Amino acid sequence: MTQTLFQYRAIDSRGENVRGSLHAPDDREAYRRIVAGGLRPTRIAAGGRRARNKPIAKKDLAHLTYQLAVFMQARIPIADGLRSIAEPERNLRTRRVLEDVALQIESGRNITESLSAHREAFGDIYIETIRAAETSGNMIKVLNHLALMLDREYETSKRVKGAMMYPICVVAALSLAILFLTIFVVPKFTTMFSSRGMELPLPTRIIAGLSDLVRTWWPLLLAAGAAGAWSLKRAWRHPGSRRRIDSALHRIPGIGDLLRYSALTRFASIFGLTLQSGLSLIDALEMAGRASGRPLLQADTDILQAQVNRGGSLSDGVKACTYLPSFSRRMIVAGMEAAELPRMCEIIARHYDRELEYLTKNMATVIEPVLVVGLAAIVLIVALAFFLPMWSMGQLMS
Q1: How many CA atoms lie within 13 A of 253 on its CB side?
Q2: What fold is seen in the domain 58-140?
Q3: Could you tell me the sign of the dihedral formed by the alpha carbons of 26, 287, 58, 10, in that order?
């Protein structure tokens, strides 16, 4: 069998980022070998290049998953169903991915192996869930639930982006206006009044000093901004620094709840889905924690995994969790005691999805007072910087 060189990035047992390479027949085998070596892969690419396939959008992935479930329920061959889904697809990249998956299935590979050839297009969570469903023979039910989960994630993401759009646009517009005044208007303004021997008021001197700073040192300021963004991006990749940044974000009023509810919705949805598809409790916890996107929640899932690995009860491990709210802890314990954990996870997901919907709908009322006070203070300073010298000149001329 032909061996391909794969370059990978992974996280070791100490939480450090590592890089390496290996030869394997396909990316699925490469993934297995990396995991067998005690690493958690974050990127795998053939020939040292990034994978050709970008992730398929959640909305499109949910739609094609639902269609695939319908075809399977109608007992239409999977390869034919995938080609039927690909035929009207407008996105050329997605169409080629689906056609290639169909071709591989026809060549004798199973669904999971065929999807694994496009791991970055579908994502680890999607592929491993399909793998468990295919093994357990529960494919149609899991596909329907997977489609619903992806659709809910898309709607949640759209609501969050919509809630943040208004404050971002207002702050960006005001920042551009102030930057224009600072660079182009203030220097002429201060020169005119200084030439008349007038002492400039404090707000005007502050704005003038800021103007001189920006006009004189703008290359250094741009370099500092780029260095800060690069440092922040690098810190986010390191587990320890990422957890500290995540903790700081959760302390911001409104934003913290937004992040928490969104993470809990994803965690509960994927935890319940992977359990229904037939994954073990430990694997389901690992996938759900990784999919949550929040280091603080992933730390709780690590506690739960360690508890189960030691032979303990998940109910006991939940007590040591700090990120999971009391509602979700009680529901998980109740689900374990009643042997209905997947159903309880669905209840948790619906609950926090409703909380998130309520929060995003009322985000404007939460942010608007703070935004108005901050903008009013900035506008007042700028107005005083312009009008106080004019007022002084008016008094001298009268």
Answers
A1: 8
A2: Receptor-associated Protein (1.20.81)
A3: negative
